[in-house]
Amino acid sequence: MSIAFCAENQVFSLTTAHHLYQMKLAEGGFLLHLYYGLKTDTDMSYRIHCTDRGFSGNPYEQRLNRGFSTDTLPQEYPCAGVGDYRAPALRVLSENGSRSVDLRYVCHAISQGRMSIPGLPFARTDGDTETLTVTLRDEVIGLEADLLYHVFPQKDMITRSVRLRNTGSGLLTLEKAASASLDFLCGSYDVLHFHGRHCMERLPERMHLQHGIFSCGSVRGMSSHQHNPFIVLCDPHATEQNGDCYGFMLMYSGNHLEEIEVSQTGSTRVVTGIHPDGFSWLLRPGEAFDTPEVMLSYSPDGLNGLSRQFHRMIRENVLAPQHRTAGRPILINSWEAAYFDFNAEKILQFARSAKELGVEMLVLDDGWFGKRDDDNSGLGDWYVNEKKLGCSMKELSDCIHAIGLQFGLWFEPEMISEDSDLYRAHPDWALCDPDRSPTMARNQLVLDMSRQDVVDYLYASMCHVLDNAVIEYVKWDFNRSIANCYSHGLPAAQQGETAHRFMLGTYRLLSRLLERYPSLLIEGCSGGGGRFDAGMLFYCPQIWCSDDSDAVERLEIQRGTSYGYPVSTMGAHVSAAPNHQTGRVTPLRTRGVVAQSGTFGYELNPGLLSETDKEEIRKQISDYHRYADLIACGDYYRLTELEDSPDLSAWMFVSGDRKEALVSIVITHVRANGPYPFVRLCGLAPKKVYRLEGTEKTCTGAALMHGGLPFVSPMGDYPAVQFHLTAEN
Ligand code: DGJ
Q1: Hey, which residues are catalytic here?
Q2: Beta strands in 39-156 (DSSP E)
Q3: pTM for the full model?
Q4: For position 17, what pLDDT does the model report?
Q5: Who contacts 58 (Cβ-Cβ below 8 Å, separation ≥6)?
Q6: Rounded to 5 degrees, what are φ and ψ at 510?
């Protein structure tokens, strides 16, 4: 049993293989947070201080017990308006204008397994998953909250979400409904968050938390290039390999907010969930609202330790079961090879040349539908432009299959061009304020996915294309942030629901398509990595990591992404040199080594390759096949910290049985007469003796981890070195 309630002490204990999460029911039905960290096998109630503090008020029934204050006690789901002045998880507007909400314990239930969350992605169960539901209630307004805790013991993970129910008779409006809040009673922390921009996503930034609120999030209608919905709270001394780290990953692809507040008492609160800006949700009597799920994990083994826990959880509990292991096709994508300038013959030439190199799938990117010779028109018209192609999609896909490749196609379902038949027929299907010109981006508008008729249209038109050709893969793009988030299908009082209903519509469309085409591989994309989150990963096991395909820039992007997400989810391609985004020239080998740590593929015109390049690509592909399991399922370690090793980037994979490892190093600045290059390896078995392939050298794991691996840096710009290690004992 991983969930227990001790009636005598009124303590809930959630136990995973190594960790303990404890809560206490206090007098008056307040649910307090006691502890999250390494197992203690102890009732941690002694940690609660009840001291009288000026200006921290008391619940009415505790007015003579001035030490009991919602303002200072650690709360599991803090509510606004009733004396806790820290960031709340919940704010509710009642029909009479009151914004106070006071949730108290009613009952709880412990069950095996878990239920799904209606309309939202969630962590899939393991055999030993258990669920705790704690029901809290505000008697005055009749609001009930089911706090849901799902425990994944072997993963050292807990997921949380909340179901809010209006059991009263008045209208309630949710103004903020976070997925989880966690109070740390003591300790001083750093926050690590992942910021970025188009073409440079998920850069780690670490800062020390001080009094006040640190927050990051997105109000772009998408999880965004700018702030990923994953943050880490860590000990200021934590390194890649050591120290306490807590991760919070929201499984959601829309607007999100992460807040961390250090209070007057030195406690730290983390609140994460849907961004409250522009959000409101009308909850009529009898209705319920579900928040997205958040995954929580703790590791005493530094940032790498925490990353490995999230990698495993995402691979085994977020991705659909058929995508957990290696086996995704090595693809060639037409975008950087042709942009909008292609016809079937050109695509077939790519396919023939790529097949000779060992590529397994051809993906036809943007430009095959409606009127679409540039990015100003055609979105929404998902019918094949046979005039441009020179044949039907069936003929093209048949020819590609005859060459021996699988076939994939690009869509951008949630968008609409003003210059499209769809817009001319249904201008009200675009998100846009009444009487106001919309804000344009990439000269396109966003479809109102909150409308069922829009979702039905997209489903029917996509199915029509997918049914009429053999298509194994879809690239699902999303190329602008949302503005003018107004739905013509909702009344004025419910406009605050549009952004979340948009995400529910997108998830519904993805689910319906996957139900109909269970083996379809969908790669997420949003101008690269603008929607790289665990919500999308529930449907799309891989996401194009960035529109920046430059190998040197990708080192930073993929490294930053790896804090939360496994490499098997990162779309990564070898592209042409000079690179189209930076003009940088890198060796083909280096481009291969970098793309190999992702869902490997190519994005170049294979007809332009020299014989030497072709030989190198054949080798890259055979190496990728050889290491595919190790890369997709092995433990991943970042070996270099950017500040300490500005001249190189190194990472490695270790197999579960620690008998095999692959070390990759890219030297970003080769120096004349520079320092000896060394990397210290991680994750090996200390006593095993490893052979470094291609050399006569053998070394114990302990030596390689403590003494490091010396290597000779090749000359030239951005060279890469790889070591494949196999254990001899
Ligand atoms: C943005 C994507 O990230 C690119 O790979 C490409 O698919 C373009 N959109 C097409 O418009």
Answers
A1: 477, 547
A2: 90-94, 104-112, 130-138, 143-152
A3: 0.98
A4: 98
A5: 65, 66, 68, 69, 83
A6: -60, -45
